[in-house]
Every structure is written in structure tokens, then in C-alpha cells.
Amino acid sequence: MSNERLKADAAMMMEALSEQMSGIAEIQRNRARLTATVTACDKRISVTVNADGILIDTKFADDIKDLSYEEIAAAMTHSVQAAAQKVQAMTIELMEPLRERKARLPRLSEMLEGAPDLGDMMPMTPRVSTAPPNSPERHYEEAAPVYEDVEDFRSRRSMINDTDR
């Protein structure tokens, strides 16, 4: 009887996984079509980004010459960032049904005693800065990794070259 239950659970999981994969494929297709457009400076500037937040279209109105280069540059930066945030929010909204479906699935640890929750093991993605280069926000305080007990490759290479002569 235990074996039959295990087969039924496995079949249920495989069906759920198949549905999940189909859902992911559909979301990926829909996400690839997303764009977001933002205007600035009384609609003198219009920018459009794709689903990855990459600028794909820029339009300037005829009266753009009334703005200084600094105003145009600042408006472009702000507009592209705003459009990227907009498309990111649309992506999150698009993925919500998939997240809800995933939340209803049993965790591996619920099915197999002692199994880890793989979701808990995933590292958190750090926030990506939108600050310009050389701004204080871009001065990271993290130290470079320190590697201990590592043989110096350069000295080993010179030893090999010395013996080949």
C-alpha cells in the first residue's frame, strides 16, 4: 500500500511539474513582449524599454532645443530608469499566478523526511544600483575575498619553466 501511495504522489508531482513548466514557458513568452514607455519634460522626451529594461526607442519633440544638454541628460537617465522599474513591476505581476501555484505545491521536506527546503538555500540577489559611476553609493565596503592555503601559481609556473630549460 505504501508503494501505491508513493506512485500516486510521484504522479501528482510530475503532473504539477508539467503544469508548472507550461506556465513558465507561457510567462516567458508574454514577458518577452513587454515594453514600458515613459515621457519627460512635458512630453519632449519619450523613451521605451524592453522586458530587460534595455532602451529600445527614444523620441524627442520638435521643441527639445528649448532644454539644455544637462536637462536632456538628466531627463533621459531618470526616464529610462522609471521605464525599467515599470517593466519590472509588470514582470512581477505577470509571474504572480505562477508564484501562487508554486506556494500550493508540497515542499520536498514535507514529502521526504530530512530533505532540505531547496528554496531556503537560494542566495538573495543584491539590489542593482542605478547611481551614476563614482557616486558614493557605488563605493562598496566589501573587502576582496581572502584565499588562504592557496599555492602561488606564478611561483609554480616559474619553477616549471626553470626545469624545462
TrEMBL record:
Keywords associated with the record: DNA-binding
Gene Ontology molecular-function annotations: DNA binding
Region entry Disordered, spans: 114-165
Keyword DNA-binding belongs to the record: yes
Alphabetical list of InterPro entries matching this protein: YbaB-like_sf, YbaB/EbfC
Name of the protein in question: YbaB/EbfC DNA-binding family protein
SUPFAM superfamilies recorded: YbaB-like
